Amino acid sequence: MSTPTVPSVLFVCVHNAGRSQMAAAFLTHLGGDRVQVRSAGSAPADTVNPAVVEAMNEAGIDISAETPKVLTTEAVQASDVVITMGCGDACPYFPGKRYLDWKLDDPAGQGVAAVRPIRDQIEQLIRGLLTELGVKATA
Questions:
Q1: Residue 51: active-site member
Q2: Model's pTM, two decimal places?
Q3: Hey, which residues does 70 pair with through a beta bridge?
Q4: How many CB atoms lie within 10 A of CB 14?
Q5: Which candidate in 9, 27, 40, 91 is catalytic?
Q6: pLDDT by residue (tens digit) across 1-58?
């Protein structure tokens, strides 16, 4: 008997401190154990953007313990879908992977009021992604 595999998604942005952290948190929250989630940055920051942490707390998701991670070739190879958010040519490309590029404003240096619409846009994109992957959202 084979173990069913779950889709694996990698979110990539430059600093892994805003957009990719929010996307990973929403996919983890809404997809549960029915999807494997990774996030990374081509030039990771030291910490997650505090305005992003606050905006996600408002949505009921705590990402205060998350830390930016460096993008590795292994993370890309282990993922079925790679979603970039402004990392440009720094993202490695491997044939056979599904690549999506989400055009989102960068929350870097922005207050929570500017982060909220980005957060809400990411949530809608994640809900659409779950539908495409055939995974029912938990909330």
A1: no
A2: 0.93
A3: 41
A4: 24
A5: 91
A6: 545 589 999 999 989 999 999 999 999 999 999 999 999 998 999 999 999 999 999 9
